[in-house]
Structure formats: C-alpha cells, structure tokens
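agent> fetching stored inputs for the protoporphyrin IX containing FE docking request
agent> found them:
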Amino acid sequence: YRWIVCLRGRFASHAVCIHLQNSVVFVCGRLFELDPELLTLFHYTTNCGSTQDCLSSPEFLEHVTKVMLVIDAAVSHLDDLPSLEDFLLNLGRKHQAVGVNTQSFAEVGESLLYMLQCSLGQAYTAPLRQAWLNLYSIVVAAMSQGWAK
Ligand code: HEM
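agent> prediction call returned; pasting tokens
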C-alpha cells in the first residue's frame, strides 16, 4: 500500500491521506464524465469498445498514476516548489506535443477535487478545498507555461 497526497501545515489544518489506487480510479471516472473526448488523446485507447474498457486499460491507469505522482511530488516539495519548475515546464511541453489542451488540465483539477470531496466527507472544508486548489494551480501554471513555449 502506498499512501499519497498528504497536504499539511500552513495550507490546511487537516492532513489528508488517500490511497493511490482508489484515487486513480476515482479521478479517471470523473474526468471522463466531464469530457469523454479526452480518451481519444491516449493512442492506446483507440480500440476500446466502451469507456469502461478504456478506464481499465493498464496504460491508461498508468498515466493517471503518473498524474498522481506529480501531485505527490508537489506536496512533498511544498516548501520548495521552484525546484520542480523545469520538470513541470517540460511536462507541459510534452502534453502540447501529444495534443492535450491546457483547458484539460483544469478538468483534471476538478476531478481531483471531486475525488477529495467524496473521500473526505465532512473533512472536506472550504479552506481545505482552497489549499488543494492553490497547490494544483501552481502545478498547472508551470505546465501551461511550458505548453505555450
Ligand atoms: C504523459 C495525456 C494531464 C502527467 C502523457 C501522455 C499522454 C497524456 C497522451 C503520453 C503517453 C502516456 O504516458 O500515457 C494527458 C491528458 C491529460 C493529461 C489527455 C488531461 C486530460 C496530465 C496532468 C499531469 C500529467 C494534469 C500531471 C499533473 C503526465 C506524465 C506523463 C504524461 C508525468 C509522462 C511524461 C513522460 O513520459 O515523460 N499524458 N495528460 N498528465 N502525463 Fe499526461
């Protein structure tokens, strides 16, 4: 078991620990409710018979795991986010190359918040939501900057 995304300290009073695998499945499901077209950007999902098939494709789950690991890295570098800048600029550039629109990053963020809301129930407070939004916005700002270069 690997637990990730523990956001603590100055941004929020609650520590939040979410199981990686559960969160991956949840974020994926929500993302494609918001925008099913996104599936077509993953070249390996072209032969999927249904959204459900795609969501269970190993490469696809691997990508969302990569997303969560980036978030995890951001959380563990909260005190030193500039050290991730080159990585995130480059990541944004890669997404530009594979045809991902920067607007889609926002949908990933919404899915992430939705997952937190569902997992945390009462503990999902306005300041906690804001803390996650702040963190995710920093990640996306750097990726979008790289995307536009
Ligand atoms: C790679 C699509 C959002 C992190 C990729 C690839 C595709 C893709 C097609 C290359 C194939 C693969 O590795 O599966 C998308 C789409 C997104 C999205 C459609 C939005 C809906 C994000 C976000 C993050 C992220 C928000 C991180 C916060 C990564 C990473 C890689 C990757 C770490 C691997 C890059 C590498 O190989 O160096 N993405 N992505 N993606 N994506 Fe995304």
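agent> quick read of the result: Confidence is low (pLDDT under 50) at residues 1-16.
agent> awaiting further instructions
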